[in-house]
Amino acid sequence: MTQAETVACLLREIRACRLCAEALPLGPRPVVQASATARILVAAQAPGTRVHATGLPFNDPSGDRLRRWMGVDRATFYDARLVNIVPMGFCYPGRAGRGGDRPPRPECARTWHDRLFAALAPPRLTLVIGQYAHAYHLGAERGATLTDTVRTWRRFWPHRVPMPHPSPRNTYWLQKNPWFEAELVPRLRDRVAEALDAARADLADGGIQADGAHRARRKEKQT
Ligand code: SF4
């Protein structure tokens, strides 16, 4: 089975998942965008209601802000050959009592994430968005708080970029931390453009480099 077939097979399994259906107020609707060739990973939190309704990740004001931060248009963002979008929870988890959404369902990462990331090409650039993605993708390297982790973004540069969630609910955080949009965002845009150029070159090369990267990572794991 080719890498592309492995990813397609896994995505079919994920989209049929009903593992925590009873805990999901709107029922299961896994939203994920992934391909074997994409080398930019948007590692996010979980869909909101509008994303649940449309089945399209970041198809909401959070997505508008995220695309502005990345300096990409919708066509690029939704090109699965270039960008993988893998939230920590694939389905809308429901509203929290005090406003905002509940955390991503833990069953999701336990069941799917290690398998999915093993099948994808290693990302050149990972946008690590929000505290749940920080915990999974940065682990013990993250700071005591989300702000600490994001403020020390240079520690993870240039391959991982810890970020706050782009939700309108975080506008106050952005106002309190103007260095994020003044310093980090312009650097992020440049990195995204570089990674996209490299990804397009891979595609023009017939995906050979992506397959090579899979082989290299498997070999690394074996040694
Ligand atoms: S949240 Fe994850 S584990 Fe739960 S039903 Fe959706 S895909 Fe399955």
From TrEMBL:
<dbReference type="InterPro" id="IPR047124">
    <property type="entry name" value="HI_0220.2"/>
</dbReference>
<feature type="domain" description="Uracil-DNA glycosylase-like">
    <location>
        <begin position="31"/>
        <end position="189"/>
    </location>
</feature>
<protein>
    <submittedName>
        <fullName>Uracil-DNA glycosylase</fullName>
    </submittedName>
</protein>
<dbReference type="Pfam" id="PF03167">
    <property type="entry name" value="UDG"/>
</dbReference>
<dbReference type="InterPro" id="IPR036895">
    <property type="entry name" value="Uracil-DNA_glycosylase-like_sf"/>
</dbReference>
<dbReference type="InterPro" id="IPR005122">
    <property type="entry name" value="Uracil-DNA_glycosylase-like"/>
</dbReference>
